[in-house]
Write a structure and sequence with these properties.
Helices cover 30% and strands 29% of the residues. By secondary structure, it is of the alpha+beta class. A hairpin with a 3-residue loop joins β3 and β4. The longest helix has 19 residues, at 187-205. The radius of gyration is 20 Å and the shape is elongated.
Length: 250
């Protein structure tokens, strides 16, 4: 699952991933895409022309980009740190267990990365997420697809903001389908919770969307889906997604 994301400004074209302990020297890659030691990875990224987006995942992760590292790092303090080598911009994630940790790192452009995905304890079973016809979503790697419940899958669908109409339609379809499998006592509460997840995602892709308007959109979605799963759930989900996006960006 996505556990952290940051846009990092680089003056030096290298990102460091690994132990929070900062090495004494700034590593020069000298044309290499990646240099690794037992505690740190140093990878080539674009600098000074735009922010570099770094996402940190635990277990499940998208099948995107080019894998440039699949191995283990020693994290003595139980914290993984991702940032620039000058120590200006970084973020940390503590998982509480010191020692060796398996990681997988992928980038969009090896040698000049603008997007970096760092995965702790990566799963290797590829799964296809719920999607509406003609609107595919990226595949994900998980450790065990049988442990991926509807809310977990919804979180993966809404874990990025590219192809927003496809993600929104898929999210609505999943809410329709999940409601039919929920326990009757908890069905209404679970539906409202999942719709709130969609509302928060809408605020992510439209940062000026106020809370009151988000609540209104959530009410609109609930009103459209509470009647149960339609015969053509794909078409209905696509129609609702277009109207929701119109309201969110008006």
């Amino acid at each position: 699952m996505l556990v952290g994301s940051a846009d990092i400004s680089l003056n030096h074209p290298v990102i460091r991933v690994g132990s929070a302990e900062i090495p004494d020297d700034v590593v020069a890659l000298q044309g290499s895409t990646l240099i690794a030691d037992e505690r740190h990875l140093h990878l080539a990224a674009r600098a000074q022309v735009g922010l570099v987006r770094v996402r940190l995942w635990s277990g499940a992760s998208p099948v995107e980009g080019v894998v440039i590292f699949d191995g283990s790092l020693r994290l003595d303090d139980g914290v993984v740190c991702v940032g620039d080598v000058l120590g200006v911009s970084s973020f940390r994630y503590g998982f509480g267990v010191p020692g060796n940790r398996r990681m997988l790192v992928s980038v969009d452009d090896p040698g000049n990365a603008s997007r970096v995905d760092v995965v702790l304890d990566p799963g290797m079973q590829e799964v296809t997420l719920t999607a509406c016809r003609s609107r595919p979503l990226p595949s994900f790697r998980v450790a065990d697809s049988s442990s991926l419940d509807s809310t977990d899958e919804l979180g993966l669908i809404l874990s990025a903001h590219n192809i927003p109409l496809s993600r929104l339609a898929a999210a609505l379809k999943l809410v329709f389908l999940a409601a039919g499998n929920d326990d009757a006592v908890r069905r209404s509460a679970m539906m409202e919770f999942r719709v709130r997840m969609i509302g928060e995602w809408l605020r992510w892709i439209s940062p000026t969307l106020p809370e009151a308007q988000t609540a209104s959109i959530n009410s609109f979605i609930l009103g459209r889906i509470q009647g149960g799963s339609p015969a053509d759930v794909d078409s209905i989900s696509i129609d609702i997604s277009s109207e929701v996006m119109r309201r969110a960006t008006a």
